[in-house]
Amino acid sequence: MPQRSVRNQLVENAEDVFRQRGFHGASVQDITTAAGVPKGSFYNHFESKQALAAEIAVRYAQATDLSTLGFDGPHPVERLRAHFAAQVARVVSTGTEYGCLFGTFAADSPSSGEQVTQAVAGGLDVWTAAVAATVEAAQQSGEITSKRPARELATMLIDAFEGGALRAKVTGDSTTPLTHIDIILEAIS
């Protein structure tokens, strides 16, 4: 069996540490302990904790499943709801009490540094664009109001999801983010 690289071990374990402790609460020692590697090896692979966190944010964004949005086909509102239901399932699978990694890193911004802030902003931008495309399809089909630009409505949906995920961290109620989405979809329909 091939050995896993130290770098891969750090990356594979850092997301959970950051999600559970936040950027500031996660130390390099916490990350190396979770990865099962010596602390001194960290700086052979990353110039800083910020560089690792930025990479984790980019990977998290790339792993966000946008396929449920589908860019053609009937019932864009159903696709939006299915997408956010999948995001809730993703958060639940890693622990409702830890929320969404974007929300965790955003809460630590701007003091987490420019690299992390830019990585999260970039991930949110890609996510927003994908949601906006489906919102626009819903506007064209008359399922969603056209009084506001699709991108504004997409931003609001994502912010409602993130706010619901934040509330769920405190209450433990994993249904909160999807309830927020349902309320907004009803209001803009």
Structure description:
- This protein has 9 helices and no strands.
- The protein starts with 5 loop residues before the first helix and ends with a helix.
- The protein has helices at residues 6-25, 28-35, 42-45, 49-62, 76-94, 101-108, 114-140, 150-171, 176-188.
- The chain is 71% helix and 0% strand.
- It is mainly α and 189 residues long.
- It is elongated.
- It has 2 domains: 6-49, Homeodomain-like (Arc Repressor Mutant, subunit A, Orthogonal Bundle), CATH 1.10.10.60; 59-188, Tetracycline Repressor, domain 2, CATH 1.10.357.10.
- Helix 1 runs antiparallel to helix 2 and helix 8 packs antiparallel against helix 9 (176-188).
Kindly summarize this structure in a few lines.
With 189 residues, this protein is an all-alpha fold. The chain is built from nine helices and no strands.
